[in-house]
């Protein structure tokens, strides 16, 4: 497990503020646990992936209600809620993820900007546009490559969103393979 993964798990999986939405935290912990099971080759297990998709689809409905009822209030709540929209299969959910990550960052979350960049890139790719930040990858056979990206975006903008520079992103694709 990498250092960034450990920091992520410590902050969003283990840390719980008194004001945190406990129901949302439970959803998040279950989702993250299943997703980390996939990291050891489970992404090839269609049954496991289908179960994750069904579970997260169910949770998205509940999270939408929480949002409408004003039950998502802390920066960590907004971040955790965004996680589900980020992993949805619907275009409109990617833009919701970007919005929720943005709010999380505005409220002082360290990772909000970074994950907002991830959500924006995923949204752009889903509407057949090139990504901006270079955070998304795709598989071509057994090889992973950085998904199409705009070449006019500077590393300065990437840095402002806590995203690796383009050279590092391209190198990361080779490490995934």
Fold and architecture overview:
Helices cover 63% and strands 5% of the residues. The protein has 8 helices and 2 strands; from the N terminus they run H-H-H-H-H-H-E-E-H-H. It has helices at 3-14, 22-38, 46-68, 75-86, 91-106, 112-126, 155-160, 166-176; strands spanning 137-140, 143-146. The protein has a two-stranded antiparallel sheet. It starts with a helix and ends with a helix. The mean pLDDT is 87.
- Multimeric organization: single chain
What portion of residues belong to β-strands?
A: under 5%
Biggest sheet: strands side by side, in what order?
A: 1-2
Largest sheet: 2 strands, antiparallel
Low-confidence stretches: none
Q: Give the CA-based shape.
A: globular
> What is the overall number of helices?
8
Task: Please give a handful of descriptors for the protein shown.
63% helix, 8 helices, 177 residues, globular, 2 strands, mainly alpha, 2 domains, two-stranded antiparallel sheet
In short:
This protein is mostly helical and 177 residues long. The protein contains 8 helices and 2 strands, in the order ααααααββαα. Helices cover 63% and strands 5% of the residues.
Give the topology, please.
Elements: H1 3-14, H2 22-38, H3 46-68, H4 75-86, H5 91-106, H6 112-126, E1 137-140, E2 143-146, H7 155-160, H8 166-176
Antiparallel strand pairs: 1-2
Helix pairs in contact: 2-3, 2-4, 4-5, 5-6
């Amino acid at each position: 497990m990498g250092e960034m993964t450990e920091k992520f798990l410590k902050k969003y999986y283990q840390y719980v503020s008194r004001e945190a939405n406990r129901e949302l935290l439970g959803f998040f912990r279950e989702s993250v646990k299943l997703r980390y099971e996939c990291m050891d080759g489970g992404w090839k297990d269609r049954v496991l992936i289908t179960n994750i998709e069904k579970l997260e689809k169910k949770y998205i409905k509940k999270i939408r209600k929480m949002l409408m009822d004003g039950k998502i209030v802390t920066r960590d709540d907004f971040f955790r809620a965004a996680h589900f929209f980020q992993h949805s299969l619907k275009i409109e959910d990617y833009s919701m993820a970007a919005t929720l990550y943005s709010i999380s960052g505005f409220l002082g979350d360290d990772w909000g900007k970074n994950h907002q960049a991830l959500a924006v890139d995923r949204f752009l790719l889903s509407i057949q546009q090139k990504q901006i930040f270079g955070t998304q990858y795709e598989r071509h056979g057994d090889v992973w490559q950085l998904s199409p990206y705009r070449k006019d975006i500077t590393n300065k903008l990437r840095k402002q969103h806590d995203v690796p520079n383009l050279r590092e992103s391209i190198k990361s694709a080779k490490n995934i393979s």
